[in-house]
């Protein structure tokens, strides 16, 4: 039999007076309830070693800025030494017991690591041969634009094939093409080496350069 609202209210008042311990509710008032836990997000992954106030262990093995081994010291003391030197306390060996920390310039360390990563990516890159086309009578502005493109390709680790195409009577002045390629070779001397010397194939003269 279902209870009226008045009977229900009276029932709950009786429960409060007696205390809820040991009391059970009538089955008709028991509902199946699913309790959902709040969604837990993963902690952000830190990029790079722990440094300064992120180091919360009581003691560390300290390496001074000059490389001297200072032994095991309280972390607070190591932080003060780093601050007094205008540098950072950086954890360099977290798995040691206690972890090894060094006083150094964190900005320089990050720059060095980024440079190493860039060099590694550069070595892994598949080298491509980019083609730059010129005319034997190219003007100064166009030449400068082409040379900037060549420099950019070298920075990306690619090789460059410089191609000159002769038209009509220009074939009678092949020395102009050879002179232009020689100029390209001289202008890239510090950043590139000649992989294939200039040669004529049909109406085209080509030279291949590779970054040093």
UniProtKB/TrEMBL annotation:
<dbReference type="GO" id="GO:0043022">
    <property type="term" value="F:ribosome binding"/>
</dbReference>
<dbReference type="GO" id="GO:0005829">
    <property type="term" value="C:cytosol"/>
</dbReference>
<dbReference type="InterPro" id="IPR019815">
    <property type="entry name" value="Translation_initiation_fac_3_C"/>
</dbReference>
<feature type="domain" description="Translation initiation factor 3 N-terminal">
    <location>
        <begin position="52"/>
        <end position="120"/>
    </location>
</feature>
<keyword id="KW-0648">Protein biosynthesis</keyword>
<dbReference type="Pfam" id="PF00707">
    <property type="entry name" value="IF3_C"/>
</dbReference>
<comment type="function">
    <text>IF-3 binds to the 30S ribosomal subunit and shifts the equilibrium between 70S ribosomes and their 50S and 30S subunits in favor of the free subunits, thus enhancing the availability of 30S subunits on which protein synthesis initiation begins.</text>
</comment>
<keyword id="KW-0963">Cytoplasm</keyword>
<comment type="similarity">
    <text>Belongs to the IF-3 family.</text>
</comment>
<dbReference type="GO" id="GO:0032790">
    <property type="term" value="P:ribosome disassembly"/>
</dbReference>
<dbReference type="InterPro" id="IPR001288">
    <property type="entry name" value="Translation_initiation_fac_3"/>
</dbReference>
<dbReference type="InterPro" id="IPR036787">
    <property type="entry name" value="T_IF-3_N_sf"/>
</dbReference>
<dbReference type="InterPro" id="IPR019814">
    <property type="entry name" value="Translation_initiation_fac_3_N"/>
</dbReference>
<comment type="subunit">
    <text>Monomer.</text>
</comment>
<feature type="domain" description="Translation initiation factor 3 C-terminal">
    <location>
        <begin position="127"/>
        <end position="212"/>
    </location>
</feature>
<dbReference type="GO" id="GO:0016020">
    <property type="term" value="C:membrane"/>
</dbReference>
<keyword id="KW-0396">Initiation factor</keyword>
<dbReference type="GO" id="GO:0003743">
    <property type="term" value="F:translation initiation factor activity"/>
</dbReference>
<protein>
    <recommendedName>
        <fullName>Translation initiation factor IF-3</fullName>
    </recommendedName>
</protein>
<dbReference type="Pfam" id="PF05198">
    <property type="entry name" value="IF3_N"/>
</dbReference>
<dbReference type="InterPro" id="IPR036788">
    <property type="entry name" value="T_IF-3_C_sf"/>
</dbReference>
């Amino acid at each position: 039999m279902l209870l009226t609202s008045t009977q229900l209210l009276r029932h709950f008042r009786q429960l409060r007076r007696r205390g809820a311990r040991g009391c059970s509710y009538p089955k008709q008032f028991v509902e199946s309830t699913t309790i959902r836990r709040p969604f837990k997000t993963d902690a952000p992954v830190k990029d790079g070693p722990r440094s300064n106030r992120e180091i919360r262990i009581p003691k560390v093995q300290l390496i001074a800025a000059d490389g001297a081994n200072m032994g095991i010291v309280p972390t607070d003391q190591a932080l003060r030494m780093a601050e007094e030197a205008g540098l950072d306390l950086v954890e360099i060996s977290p798995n040691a017991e206690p972890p090894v920390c060094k006083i150094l310039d964190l900005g320089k360390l990050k720059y060095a690591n980024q440079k190493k990563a860039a060099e590694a990516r550069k070595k892994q890159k598949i080298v491509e041969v980019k083609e730059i086309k010129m005319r034997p009578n190219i003007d100064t502005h166009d030449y400068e634009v082409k040379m900037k493109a060549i420099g950019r390709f070298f920075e990306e680790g690619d090789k460059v094939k410089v191609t000159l195409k002769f038209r009509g009577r220009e074939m009678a002045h092949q020395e102009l093409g050879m002179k232009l390629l020689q100029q390209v070779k001289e202008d890239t001397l510090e950043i590139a080496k000649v992989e294939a010397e200039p040669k004529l194939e049909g109406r085209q003269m080509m030279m291949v350069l590779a970054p040093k």
